[in-house]
Amino acid sequence: MQTIKKYFGEFNMTWPKVIILAVITALYTALINQVSFLQDTSFQDIAVYPDWWFLFAIFIIVNCKKWWEASLKCFVFFLVSQPLIYLIEVPFYAYGWDIFRYYDYWFKITVLTLPGAAIAFQLKKKNWISVLVLSVATGYLSWASVHYFRAAQANFPNHLLSAVFCLALAVFFVFILLDKKKHCITALAIIAAVFIAVFAFTKIDDTMEMYLDEGKWTFSAEDKSVVTVEIVEGNHVTMSAIHDGTTFIRFENTAGVERNYLVTVSGVSIWIDAIDED
Predict the structure, then answer these.
(1) How far apart are the first and last CA of the chain?
(2) CA pair distance 202, 39, nearest whole angstrom
(3) Nearest to 140 by CA among 116, 119, 170
(4) Residue 3 burial by CB count (10 A; 0-12/13-18/19+): exposed, middle or buried?
(5) For 168-196, how does the pLDDT look when each residue is reduced to its tens digit (9 = 90+)?
(6) Bond prior to 115 in cis (omega within 30° of 0)
(7) Which of 20, 166, 181, 277 has the highest CB neighbour count under 10 A?
């Protein structure tokens, strides 16, 4: 454990290393996102959710000597890695450069790293403020663990590894970043409390999201008792399971283009099969 701790406080986090880390993580994320049989699994969650990025950010922050250094290096790491992910994915994306429309979410996170990293620098002090700051990260990871677990319940074993990873990472942070026993016990208690609370007040994920081509779409369903359908932003479709069954759903946009799907609900899982793409 002491050997691992050295990498979270004594590692020489130079600017070249920040850039190299950004490039490596971007390459991995962009390429793993192209493996079709890994779609909607734990292996591609790094491209959608910030769980892994907590690890990279904290690794950078606690290896800096000044709060402003941590803030700038964390900001630059995200400023390089996130656009690079989308840049690498451009040739693989059907609509090319339009993939950058998804960057808005990560750009907001990138900007927030400036004040966020400055606050997270308090982790180096290993006091009660450190416990409080760390609990923000571990609280999120505890929530994410339950979120993934619910998703795995709906479509086992998808996202099960992410559920385990998030909870394990939260506990890992406690033992790596805190020294005193009373601090560790408090931090672990917070993790347990958040996990139990979220688990108690959430249910199995019974929704499925999909994006149609750009434009404004409407839909018609053969059997409206199987799923509910909601379309926002013109082409963002969310389906929620009502009860087991199968229904035919037709989407049509303002240009007269149709997309037909056979939707099956089993348990709380929703399966969507395209009938045609013309």
Answers:
(1) 58
(2) 24
(3) 170
(4) exposed
(5) 999 999 999 999 999 999 999 999 999 99
(6) no
(7) 166
3-class secondary-structure state, position 197 = helix
Residue found under tokens 């699994």: 41
Decide: 227 and 263 in contact? Cβ < 8 Å: yes
Domains of the chain by residue range: 2-200, 207-276
Which residue is it, tokens 């793993």? 32
**The token pair that represents 228 in the structure block:** 């509910």
The three-point CA angle 91-93-99 to 5° equals 105
**8 A C-beta contact, residue 123 and residue 61:** yes
Q: Which residues pair with 248 in a beta bridge?
A: 262
Give alpha helix (H) positions in 155-229.
160-177, 181-200
- What does the pLDDT read at residue 93? 80
At 144-174, the pLDDT tens digits run 999 889 888 877 788 899 999 999 999 999 9
